[in-house]
Sequence to fold (371 residues):
Amino acid sequence: MKNTMYALLMLIIISCENEPAPIITLSSEKAIVSFSINGMEASINETDKTISLVLPGGTDITAIAPLITISNNAAIAPNSGETQDFSAPVLYTVTAQDASTVIYTATITTVAQSSEKQITSFSINTVNGTIDETAKTIMITLPTGTNATSLSPVISVSDNATISPNSGVAQDFTNPVMYTVTAEDNSTVNYTITVTVTPSTCANPANIYTFQYNGKTYELVRENKTWTEAAACAVERGGYLAEINDAAENTAIFNELMNNAGITLSNTVSNSGGAASYVFLGGNDIDAEGTWVWNGNNDAITTQFWQGDASGLPVNGLYNNWGIEPDNFGNQDALGLGLNVWPQPTGGLGTAGQWNDIPATDALYYLIEFD
Fold:
């Protein structure tokens, strides 16, 4: 029995030794399956073994680390994620498992950057400027009264270009302002913008005396107008009939008018105001008798500062400097700053520097204030 078992075992061993060894086949796959830079997939031509990708303009292609996927069990050199200079084509060698190789040529370019750098439109307060592309100038004329010291233009430029100062940023256009347009390729051009404000025609410049107080500008106009005409001229010139808010302002204005403004008192007299001399201020009670408001531009926006006649009261504690006024004598609806006593010649109702209500239909000098 033992001999029989031994014989069978030997037969099995001999049979196994005579079986052929298994053949292991190595892969010859060696393709670049994907090639991407900054999330952009390259085009792979498997026939020509080329890779191409166009990146956005301005991309620095001298230091780029592409992400590369290759066939299973293959290797690549240079490696995926390794930084390369693509200012010239870069060769990638893929080695298969069986050690066979193939070379891919990777060419990376960028979109040509635009050199366009034009101001295509320029407007202020909906008024369009005239663009001279040859001279690189823009001319714009704005209405009378426009304050050129703080204007915010709306500007359009070429695609992919930028401008400085930016569109919408306030500028002082009392003198020409230079704007620089930068193209996508970083080339630049300068435009010179000139703003002209249409001159006022409601007052002769020779009859205007200008002075400053507490950061504001005032104009005394030595021309005779009704209160309504004076308010309209004030608006045309970019201001409003003066609104006096405290004793210091009243004193400073009165002293300036009397000492420096060149006023001929006999040329600005209100007969209804005690035959005294006055300049119109921005107050009135035209809409409602006894309701005195500041409304120096004669619009619907008013601030009431007094209620009633001479025995009335200030509103909200606002400043006033009435004589024994107002009295509405002869329908007196406009506020005047007295330049001498009234009634002339002895006084008794008011002194120089005080306020009186006088007819809005009088033709007097007037004081404009500018913010």
Summary: The mean pLDDT is 94. Residues 48 and 104 are 8 Å apart (CA to CA).
